[in-house]
Amino acid sequence: MILIHCPYCDEKRPEIEFANAGQAHIARPLDPSGQSDAEWETYLFIRANPRGRHHERWRHVHGCGRFFNAVRDTVTDKFETTYKAGEPRR
Amino acid sequence: MSGFRLETGGRIDRSQSVQFHFDGKTYHGFAGDSLASALLANGVMLFGRSFKYHRPRGLVAAGSEEPNALISVDRGPGRFTPNLRATGVEIHDGLKAFSQNRWPSLAMDFGAINDRLGMFFPAGFYNKTFMWPRSFWDRVYEPAIRKMAGLGDAPTAEDPDVYASTYAHCDLLIIGAGPAGIDAALGAMDTNKRIVLIDEQDELGGGALADPALWPWLERSVKALANAANVTILTRTTAFGYYHDNFIGAVQRLTDQSPEITDTPREKLWRIRAGEVVLAQGAIERPLVFDGNDTPGVMLSSAAKVYANRYGVAVGKAPALMASHDSGWHDVFALAKAGISISAIIDVRDSVDSALMREADRLGIPVYLNHGVVGVRGRHGVSSIDICNYGDQRVHRVDADALLMAGGWTPSVHLWSHSKGSLKWRDDLGAYVPDVPNENVQCVGACAGDWDFGTGAVIDMLPTPKDQSRIKAFVDFQNDVTAKDIKLAVREGFRSIEHIKRYTTNGMATDQGKTSNLNGLQIASSALHKPVPEIGLTSFRPPYTPQTFGALAGHAKGALFQPTRTTNIDSWAQAHGAVFELVAQWRRARYFPKSGEDMHAAVNRECVAVRSSVGIFDASTLGKIEVVGPDAAEFLNRMYTNPWKALEPGRCRYGLLLKEDGFITDDGVSARLAPDRFHLTTTTGGAARVLNMMEDYLQTEWPDLDVWLTSTTEQYAVIALQGPNARKVLEPLVEGIDLSAEAFPHMAIREGTICGIKTRLFRVSFTGELGFEINVPTAYGRAIWEQLMAQGTQYDITPYGTEAMHVLRAEKGFIIVGQDTDGTITPFDAGLDWAVGKKKPDFVGKRSMTRPDIVAPGRKQLVGLLTDDPNVVLEEGAQIVADPKQAIPMTMIGHVTSSYWSETLGRSIAMALVAGGHDMTGDTLFIPMPGKTHTAKVSGVVFYDSEGARLHV
């Protein structure tokens, strides 16, 4: 069972306390109505599926409840780092 | 011809005789014996029948790598354990063990005919042979194969045993308590580290248990470790899996060896998180591959040493050794020292260390260098062996009653591989050893390839002058895979060891190829003319050895399999005969049958009562979220399709929640209690999902909004009081709220008290009748319910369940998200476009309302269906077609989502999702069902009181 560092609790906790919430750093457009169909499609559906470093969101759902960002290697399943929502991409 | 007990020696307690049973026959052994050593001491050589060919098989090993001697143990009803290795079963008085995969008896097995037909059972045999005719597979071939090829019988009764589980944390976890593991523990003992030392055997020592010279050291070491406060020793404990971040799963066997203990769990699952792991799993000796190497009495030389030195049992009166490695020589020297006469040492090498030659000479053991075994005589035991001089190819016979194999060693890298540590190939060992770790772990001792067994030659199989097609040289004993099978797989084009493994099933038995993987690799390597590292290695996966489902499940079975959520009113429903159903994890009353009523009759009665007088319903499971803060209205305005900012305090609104893709994900009625406070309700199953979604937007998209979300689902009991007499029942009990239609209209909320208890009283309806939903603190739920029941007696108040609730809402065309929608339904598809605030600049899902696929024609839309025969109740999920005469497969244009008998309307009603359905009103559609195709006319979804007059009384 993976240990995940929650940047809000500042503790490594077992993965069963967390839930994955998909790819990170996909901001909701400030003006959705101004989006073309293609832009909106990209926002809704187009996601990276990298082999290796992957930025993704996690929620400490059975802990503090906060969403945060993480860099995880999809090959080794190792977490490189985690950081608070709103902080720049690492 | 067979094994016997030596006069002296071993770690068994000769003062304690133990009586046990094997295949119904009574035997005696000593305390400290394994089932394998005790049977061997009694002259038993035949332990089982092989998987495919039903060949007689004996012991190969003395440890958990044993591939052949799989037995079942019967500890009474529900306590039947198949597929245990006889080498790991400790004997005790009254033990009842049985051989497997034989009929009618072990010695006379009918299935052995498969062995004579062996030429018809090559690799891939199942895939090739039983493909025709296809229909025979399910009815004929598979049942027959399952009967013939098999392991032990699955237990038939429920397991009455209890299984414990626990978590443990330590700084240092040492797996394997042979000399290397014990040294590691001794070395760390004087630090302040918390140490856990685990070993699968019943006592510490590993390989040292078969080496009397090490026993004094072992005794001192074990005593020192046992006295160290920071060391926890777990014996009879198998570390079966190595998971991320040094998380190790282990099962400790607590009572199987001591049936007199009845008040503790049978096994305990340990989940251990370790700072550092030391793997000291040792190495497994490799069998040699030659014709007849599976004859009972042919075993690993290291195993013979274990039987002699640990258990005081000789495997035979005159065993011979077939070696390609020095270690076998040392083993037979040890046997000679224990008083066993060695008939011959045969070694494929043409020269060995001169010290070995001198010792053999001193002991008077005939030595045959550059020779190999090419045949084994005897079927249920060894009578003699044929050996071939590789110089002149002459074959001659050597008398021996057992044959020991010493084919070198395979480091046990199983757990290392679970942890994703990499491996490197060592030509000198002919084995993979640990290379780069992936966790904080190191391997020590033999599992790191570090041993003092001497050297050996690495070979794929023993050369033989015999016709290759006529020999049976086994690689995987448990799955009956021969060298021929692997060569055949290569000839048929398999190149990757992963494919060869699956085609031949080499290494796929319950032992995961502990004794067979490396020999299989070497044979494939020779056949492919490629070095082993280019062919790779198959993956090891947990569990290291088979574990019981009981240990893995622990308490999570039966009623404890998953939590059942119950409301405060549940106990009342239980006492009043409710029939329950599970909704999400809630237990909900489905209907309340009176004596003699079936579900249909009960639901009809409950529905009529609500329409004609008053019904009472436990709605406590509704999801509830308290939304508080200065930006609460702005937040809800962005989340829901509806406008919220103008909603006055004291009023309610039906809220429709979409995902960003425009599809309905939840709905519910919500109330504004104050300018900065809302009481939201969600569907029963959607509560957690909706809160998660709202938290997501609040935390990550709109962190500037000052809003707090709190789940209040379990804070309130909710009682729905529905029907024309609802107000009359409620009025006498409520204080501080004017219940009149003018003062308290439909879709309003008031705060006051009921029976003196604070309440949030909603005037809402999911039935189409005058209705109230009474929210009180959870602890008062049943008390208020009972007061309402008493007050309602004069109106024949009727408790109703979820089934009647479904019928009543369907009569009004109210949808159930997840039943009438399926995650691809927009508000327009569902006929709920009235709930969409078209003037709002944005809300979650708004932009998707104009996506090309969503504005395209032909979308599935929610419609009503009225069957032409009013007595036909369609099946929910039934497919709908426009033309029943079209060719099969027909074009299905939709399906029935809700369908009920409506007692109020005296006919069936249904809802359906149909492509282009909104434009089909009045059209006839067809619902093909087994036996008959039903016809129905498309209608609106509101079947009852379409103007809503009954709501506003």
Quick synopsis:
The complex is a heterodimer of chains A (90) and B (953). Chain A is mainly β.
What does the secondary structure layout of this molecule look like, with pairings?
The complex is a heterodimer of chains A (90) and B (953).
Chain A: E1 3-6, E2 11-14, E3 19-23, H1 37-45, E4 53-59, E5 67-73, E6 79-84
Antiparallel strand pairs in A: 1-2, 3-4, 4-5, 5-6
Chain B: E1 4-5, E2 13-22, E3 25-31, H1 35-41, E4 48-49, E5 56-57, E6 70-74, E7 80-85, E8 96-99, H2 113-116, H3 125-129, H4 136-148, E9 163-175, H5 179-189, E10 195-198, H6 215-227, E11 231-234, E12 237-243, E13 247-253, E14 267-279, E15 283-285, E16 298-300, H7 301-309, E17 313-314, E18 319-323, H8 326-337, E19 344-347, H9 354-363, E20 367-369, E21 371-377, E22 384-389, E23 395-399, E24 402-406, E25 409-411, H10 414-418, E26 423-426, E27 431-434, E28 441-443, E29 474-476, E30 481-482, H11 483-491, H12 497-504, H13 517-528, H14 532-535, H15 549-553, H16 570-575, E31 579-583, E32 586-591, H17 599-612, E33 615-618, E34 623-628, H18 632-639, E35 652-658, E36 664-674, E37 677-682, H19 687-701, E38 708-711, E39 716-722, H20 726-730, E40 734-735, E41 748-754, E42 757-763, E43 771-777, H21 781-792, E44 798-799, H22 802-811, H23 852-855, E45 860-867, E46 879-881, E47 892-902, E48 907-915, E49 924-929, E50 932-939
Parallel strand pairs in B: 2-8, 9-10, 9-14, 10-11, 14-28, 16-24, 18-19, 18-24, 19-20, 33-44
Antiparallel strand pairs in B: 1-17, 2-3, 4-5, 6-7, 6-8, 12-13, 13-14, 15-25, 21-22, 22-23, 26-27, 29-30, 31-32, 33-39, 34-37, 34-38, 35-36, 36-37, 39-43, 40-41, 41-42, 42-43, 45-48, 45-50, 46-47, 47-48, 49-50
